[in-house]
Amino acid sequence: MKYVTAVIFISLGFCLTAQNIPGVDKPGSYAKTAATCYKTFYNEPEKLDTLTRPEGMISQRIWRIIDLKSPGNQFMNYNQPKTCQFDLWEILRFGLKTGKINAFRSDNFSSAQANLIPKKEVLSMMRVHDTITETVFDSEGNETKTEKVRDEDISSASLSGYIVCEDWYFDSHWAKADKRIVCIAPIFFDDKQQKEKPLFYLYYNECRNLLSSYQVPLTDPKDSLTYDKLFLKRKFEFYVMKKTNVFNRSVNDYSKGKTIEYESDKTIRELLSKDFDQFEH
Question: What residues make up the domain containing 193?
């Protein structure tokens, strides 16, 4: 009996002292952040072919929508800090807070400097600032209204999706059809305006190093699929929201429901057909 008691005291003593041993995690301290996991899975961005204006003739600019409600895109909302796997928004937010990437007001990067958003304003844009009115009834049915100030970070759950803007072109130097991502933009539902809108635009080339520093959640670690590779390989579900045309209209302006999907597929088929036609002239 004395032996058993001694063992218990020794075990308890070890557990208590182990909490203070450097390198031994304390209970509740296992969570990691996008900052501490930065470049854990770093895979240098794949070099893209250099392109000069005479060599690349832009045939079309299109805007894709990544719908986060789509089953095939659920991984973009997945967070597992223990394994350094984060949703896309958490990574972009980290990049913006630390100045690794910049935010812009427009997808027109020919005047990027004029559209650059100051960091202080970006930090404010990534938070929700509004007042919520709550109605409470007591046991006698008397109504009491109270106002609460809401000031919190915009979470991934608050986003409905992402816009991916890209140029489709024919590269005469390499004699091949290709496409380049120009920018991405998180889509946020504005309670005041009661509509979805892009929060801001992120220049994709500037984001590549950041996106190459994180592995896509729910994928095999052996595949080394970073967010940059995910975008370059278009490994997500999407539909085409808009394309450059005579009226510069969104597909949503003249299509609804299943018709949007049809018009989206039709746009891609037309682009592919146009690219192949380049070889015939």
Answer: 33-128+155-280
Q: Within a domain: residue 45?
A: yes
**pLDDT averages per 10-residue partition of the chain, 281 residues:** 44 43 41 85 80 58 89 86 89 95 92 91 88 76 76 87 88 74 91 85 96 87 85 87 56 44 50 44 32
Distance CA 110, CA 165 (A): 14
Residue 136: inside a domain: no
Q: How many domains does the structure of the chain reveal? A: 1
SS3 label, residue 106: coil
Q: For residue 248, what pLDDT is reported? A: 47
What is the three-class DSSP state of 61? strand
Residue 209: partners with Cβ closer than 8 Å, 6 or more residues away: 45, 100
Rounded distance between C-alpha atoms, residue 152 and residue 169, angstroms: 42
d(CA 88, CA 44): 18
CA 204/CA 186 separation, integer angstroms: 13
Q: How far apart are CA 88 and CA 202, in angstroms?
A: 13
Query: What residues does 240 pair with on adjacent strands?
Result: 64
Q: Are 214 and 225 in contact (CB under 8 A)?
A: no
Nearest-5° angle of CA 205, CA 223, CA 75? 70
HSE, side-chain direction, 13 A CA sphere, residue 198: 20
Please state the pTM of the whole predicted model: 0.71
Residue 147 lies in a domain: no
* pLDDT for residue 48: 76
Residue 144 lies in a domain: no
Helix axes 88-97, 204-211, angle to 10 degrees: 110
Distance, in Å, from the CA atom of 33 to the CA atom of 21, rounded to the nearest integer, reads: 22
